[in-house]
Amino acid sequence: MFTKSQIDAEKLNPDSLFFKNALVPTREESTLLSLLDNLGKLPAGFSGELFVPLLTHANPKIRMLAVKNVGKLKDDRFLEELSQFAANEKNTLARREAISAIGRMRSEKAIPTLTYYLTDTDPKVVLQSVRALLYFKEKPEVQTALDSLLEHPNELIREHLASEIERKKSGRRTSKKDLQHPMSPDALKNVIIHADVQESLKIIPDESIHLTFTSPPYYNARDYTIYQSYVAYLDFLTTVFKETHRITKEGRFFVLNTSPVIVPRISRAHSSKRYAIPYDIHPRLTDIGWEFIDDIVWTKPDYAAKNRNGGFFQHRKPLGYKANSVTESVMVYRKKTDKLIDWNIRQYDDETIAASRVMGDYEKTNLWHINPATDKVHPAIFPPELASRVIQFYSFKGDLVFDPFGGSGTVGHIALTHDRYFLLCEKEAEYIERAKQLLDVALFAHAKPRVLSLTKLESELAERNQNL
Ligand SMILES: C[S@@+](CC[C@H](N)C(=O)[O-])C[C@H]1O[C@@H](n2cnc3c(N)ncnc32)[C@H](O)[C@@H]1O
Fold this sequence. Notes:
- The protein has helices spanning 4-11, 18-22, 29-37, 60-73, 79-88, 92-104, 111-116, 123-133, 140-147, 155-170, 197-202, 230-247, 277-288, 310-315, 341-346, 350-356, 384-394, 410-417, 429-439, 454-467; strands at residues 191-194, 209-214, 248-258, 261-263, 273-275, 290-299, 327-335, 367-369, 400-403, 421-426, 450-452.
- The chain is an alpha/beta fold.
């Protein structure tokens, strides 16, 4: 076995026969693997031919590392070997690596090979060829080849090409700081809109909020809102979350807490009906343009679950088992964009980024153990800890956090605690009163909530437009 420092020293010596002797296919596999893995940056003039026999080694890990090392050389003398490798290799990641190595050559000689792999059956290989060919996108034959993929069945390939077209149209490769991004309309800050959420959303300007965290009504299971049918309920949520998408800033997050619900049976002769709300709403959200990011599971203690085990506990007969439900979904989505999350972060000044850092210990898994909370007025409130995690993980200080189903105002309360603003919608006066009590506490004397009717908010927004 060779040490890293020994390898580094030999790389600096052009006359050394060390690699010629060491990189032979008959050498012990563990030694070859460690050598290939520790080669690091290769000096100019390194003899790439030494890797070629390893491209057909019986050990797939050695083949993979050999391809990676050839790629570091960015030398089109190895085009034929890499092309052969991509044609014969079975491992899909190693094939992709070979195409990546060909792309790194940035050589016009590689264009026919890369164009050939645009028709590969493995989307990873196609995508890698697309990325490599984009370097030559000004060439008409490359443009034609890439255009032929605009309707490719694979979504990642289509999205990659579409975002390239978008970038070309907007005439910039990386977008500048959008000075408006951290801002939100003053008229919406620390406001509870007392109205039906569908009406409220219509008057909120595009791209005004940074984060939504919400828990919608539970179909006909808990509250007194009655929907004609489950489809009507899902349609209602879809309308609300489509509008939420419109008023959300580019690349920002939407976090939705739901769980399957049971609508109780109407008599002993019938069974109760269970509705899988998180699963049924998910495809509608992605259709709207919310990109799925994470599935967090909120776990409550056993005592918090409704007991569904009574019958089975007695009779123990198969098929009659019913699990007590101690979890809820906390699904995380992002407004779809071709910009990376880094772009969103860069829109803030250094001070805000530093002040918003999530310090100390935090939950690293997607299983969040949090006790449920109860309230004397509202039957289904967020535990403050849940809102606190979501707000800290997915927003910056000074952001506007929205809850379309505001209830007793937990999101507002916790947003203020973390130096964010809130905007809530709620239709029930009783819950708004409760929210006011919670939000009016002395701690937040500087940020008294304003309960506005639709007309009042509309006129405030119109006034703001006049002053712009
Ligand atoms: C599950 S609760 C949300 C509770 C909230 N997360 C909290 O911590 O208090 C759903 C809320 O949505 C409200 N709601 C239901 N339909 C609505 C609508 N069409 N417009 C506005 N609010 C609505 C209900 O009155 C209820 O307070």
